[in-house]
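Subject: Re: docking follow-up (flavin mononucleotide)

Dear J.,

Thanks for your patience while I sorted out the input files. As discussed at Tuesday's group meeting, I've set up the holo structure prediction with flavin mononucleotide included as the bound ligand rather than trying to dock it afterwards. The sequence and the ligand SMILES I used are pasted below, so you can double-check that they match what you have on your end before we go further.
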Amino acid sequence: MRKVSSLSDLGFMRNCIFETIISTYSIKNLPNAAPMGVMTDDMHRLIIKPYTTSQTYRNILLQKCAVVNITSDPVIYYKTAFKDANYSSKVPLGWFEKANRVNAPKLKNADACIEVEVTEIENKRDRAKVFCEVLNIVPAKIFPKAYCRATFALIESIIHATRIKVFLSKDEKKVEELTKLVKYYDALVGKVAPRSVYSDIMKENLKRIENWKAKDKIEKT
Ligand SMILES: Cc1cc2nc3c(=O)[nH]c(=O)nc-3n(C[C@H](O)[C@H](O)[C@H](O)COP(=O)(O)O)c2cc1C
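The structure tokens for the complex came back this morning:
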């Protein structure tokens, strides 16, 4: 197998956002993971943009390092975006192992891991810009995966759900727009992956959105 030693080996391209899972340790050294987009502007450093309300941001601020996990598995996106979708509302400890070069956990099931050290943090209102130096790239020995449209549709729906949660009490039009997209993707998953783990997660995701909306309506009355 060819050695993976650079961001371009992993498919990164300048100025494009790639979806990943960022794993970090808390102040008590408890592992945390959350989906976040990352990009590179020079094919060497990585830039993460966490909301300052996120646990990931707090951990990065404290530890000054993280692991950028590469995966296309929608189950990992779902269970790390919504911690309450897990037993005991926590990402299972068994999913993690300590990284080699930084004080951060990595995901055992990731296709590849990039260990990074934080060099600079810029704060802009509610979102930070975290500049990272790549210290170590660890590819996993994985087989190629056949492409199913449900994986894309599900990951898009999980992103939209996290945004619906943010916009809920602020922008009704945006919430409806995003909900419409999630329903479109639900129909697509129903077509290409009916009665699968993907369609189950999609149903759960839709129910989650409906529950948030119902709660918001009650709070507004
Ligand atoms: C594919 C995907 C990409 C996301 N990208 C970001 C991001 O760039 N920054 C961010 O703050 N949240 C992003 N989110 C939302 C966070 O993952 C979500 O709010 C999560 O619950 C934060 O977890 P934490 O509080 O443990 O850090 C993304 C979600 C998904 C599904």
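A couple of observations from a first look. The pocket of flavin mononucleotide is lined by residues 19, 32, 34-37, 49-51, 54-56, 77, 81, 155, 158-159, 162 (CB under 6 Å). The radius of gyration is 18 Å.

Let me know if you'd like me to rerun anything.

Best regards,
T.
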